[in-house]
Please model this.
Amino acid sequence: MASSSSSSNNEGILARVSNVVSQSPVLYRGKQVASDAAYVTKRLLKSTGNAAWIAGTTFLILVVPLIIQMDREQQMNELELQQASLLGAPPVSPSK
Model:
């Protein structure tokens, strides 16, 4: 019988300690800080995603066509030089 009363006494102590810890203002504040940090992180990731979307679409709309046009211009210059050399004209240095 002594072992069962000792066992229930230990469970009572564990329950009281658990109750005190769960109602601790430090634990409550820690949970609140963790919740606030999660909210801020979520908002930051959403804002970063939006900024990445804007930067990516801007790059596709403005920069990619410019790169394509510059490549075409370079190819045209090379083609003109090649045609001039085939026709026997003196090579002309490409203008920059």
Remarks:
- The longest helix spans residues 25-87.
- The chain has one domain: 2-87.
- The radius of gyration is 37 Å.
